[in-house]
Amino acid sequence: MTKYAAKIDISNIVKDIIILSDDVSDVETFCNNTFGGTWKETFKDGTRKQFAPIGGIYNSSKDKFICEQPFSSWTLDSNDDWQPPVVMPDVSDENYKDRRWNEEIQKWTALKVSEDVIYSWDASTSTWSQL
Questions:
Q1: What percent of the chain is predicted at pLDDT more than 70?
Q2: Which of 51, 67, 47 is nearest to 19 (CA)?
Q3: Is the dihedral of CA 41, 63, 86, 94 positive or negative?
């Protein structure tokens, strides 16, 4: 099985990921001694929450990797997942594509395909309205 190691800086931010041969028995000790710095083994199977993301953070007290905060308004939930201040609309309307968070207006936006116009999600009425 291929092994992976994440290099973390003094602030526990993930700076690099390397692939190691499966014959390395102690990934962290091997990397610390061979390359210097601080290394943590990362896994693709959900161990340590998720595979270490470049720019993400290693939380040593919880022994897991957490993604970088996508926007300043988003907060970590109890599962250490980033949540927006307004829940992403769970609307299956195929007319609205390319949904994304707009930090400036604190709303979800989407492109209405038939009009080539951008709409924003109004959480209070659960509808899309033209920007």
A1: 98
A2: 51
A3: positive
pTM, rounded to two decimals: 0.77
> Does some domain include residue 12?
yes
For the record, the structure tokens of 112 come out as 């209405």
Burial degree of 104 (CB within 10 A; 0-12, 13-18, 19+): exposed
User: CA 32, CA 104: separation in Å to the nearest integer?
Assistant: 42
Find the domain containing 28 and state its range: 3-66
| Selected residue with higher pLDDT from 97 and 43 | 43
Instruction: Count how many residues are written for the chain.
Output: 131
| Predicted confidence (pLDDT) per residue in 45-88, tens digit | 989 999 999 999 999 999 999 999 999 999 999 999 999 999 98
Find where tokens 């979800």 sit: 108
In a domain, 47, yes or no: yes
Q: CA distances (Å), 116 to each of 70, 72, 90, 95, 106, in order?
A: 26, 29, 21, 10, 21
Which of 28, 47, 66 is at the close of a domain? 66
